[in-house]
Specification:
Blueprint: E1 5-9, H1 13-25, E2 29-33, H2 36-45, E3 50-53, H3 62-70, E4 80-84, H4 89-97, E5 102-105, H5 110-120
Length: 121
């Protein structure tokens, strides 16, 4: 399934801007959310083809949000790529256990991200 609609969840306005620009340059439509509550509102409005999820956020962290989304039958088929500054292997493993399909660290390399997205299709 080709990825057209992406939900980017990150509490950093700078990261949201950088990732949005990167994805839009590759022909994708992007919605953003700055926290868990906003992410769930966006999901209810329109189901994306992919979610890019930050880990370190106020309130619920990205691991908790990923677990909730991936275990919800309505959204379980939406792939999630963790997109975070957490570089430890244990973080990557934990993110995958929560339901993420892939894991990429910041600063995000555009070609690496696009390759990961293409691999999901």
């Amino acid at each position: 399934m080709p990825v057209h609609k992406v939900l980017v969840v990150d509490d950093s306005k700078t990261e949201l801007m950088v990732l949005t620009e990167m994805l839009e340059k590759n022909g994708m439509s992007v919605k953003t959310a700055e926290n868990a509550e906003e992410a769930f509102r966006r999901l209810a409005q329109e189901k994306p083809d992919l979610i890019l999820m930050d880990v370190v956020m106020p309130g619920k962290n990205g691991f908790q949000v990923t677990r909730a989304i991936s275990r919800d039958p309505q959204y379980a088929d939406v792939p999630i790529i963790m997109c975070t500054s957490k570089t430890q292997e244990t973080d990557r493993v934990w993110g995958m256990r929560q339901g993420a399909r892939d894991y990429i660290t910041k600063p995000v390399d555009a070609s690496e991200l696009m390759a990961k997205i293409k691999a999901l299709s």
